[in-house]
Structure formats: C-alpha cells, structure tokens
User: Fold this.
Amino acid sequence: MPKKIVINGLSQENITAAIKEVREYKQWVLQKEEELRVRLAAVGATVASIQFSRAIYSGTNDVSVRVDNTGSVAVIYAEGEAVAFIEFGSGDRYGHGHPQAGELGMGPGTYPSDKGLWNNPKGWWYGHSQHTYGNPPAMAMYQAVQTMTEQITMIAREVFKA
Assistant:
C-alpha cells in the first residue's frame, strides 16, 4: 500500500514526526516482505513435497523437502539420492518430458554410471535383482516454481493490503 507522508511546516517537531512515520512504514514493508517470502516458500515446498511423494519411481524414494528462510531469501531444497531421477525421469522409455532437462544437463543417458543401460529396450537391473524401464519425470520442483509464479500476485495483494 503506498504511503503518503505529509509534513505540516518545517518545524523540528513536524520533521521528527515525519521521520518517525517513514521508519514505521519501512518496518511495515519489511514485515510484509517477510510474510510474502514465507507464504510463497510454503506454497512451493508443499507442491514439491506432494509431487515427490506421488512420483512413480522403481527405487527408494528418499526425497525430503525443506525451506531455509534466512536473511532476505527463502530457498526450497529437495534432498535425497533420488531427487534427480524423480525430478527429471530416467530411461529411454519414460525419462523424457521435463521442460528444463536439456538446459540443466539432465535427462535420459546423462547419469554418469548408466554406461548405455538407459536405452536398453529390455530395461535394466539395479540393486538387489530389481528391474526397471525407468520412470517418468515428476517435475516436482518445476511444478513448485510454476505454482508460485501463478500465485505470487494474489498472495502479494493479500499480504500488502491495508
């Protein structure tokens, strides 16, 4: 909300009152900025958590999502050994479709230890006799960003309303 500060004359008392108003408004803006950051991060973390938990994945889904809200930045982390496999997908049969895979150097055949197994038409074996053809990309973090982008204006209006 824009704030208009009116000074009724240039007396010391009026200028001091105006300075106080400016400082109070600055605190209000900082509080609202933090509230917006926290709410957006919560939306993103929720979407990412849900998408990771719903993912189709043959291995162990060890992904956890957390928010680090320190300073003036909130960062959403997805942690676990399966994050990249679940986010971007794997295998030639299912591992395509993430819109940012190429620009981030991900996608079928990019995992260093695949040694060509990713495109085997018979799938491949891993772990203790477990077979897979790969998995589709869950796009959990991608969907989190899309949702935050869609909702930022609405949330900002709610936060900054008088």
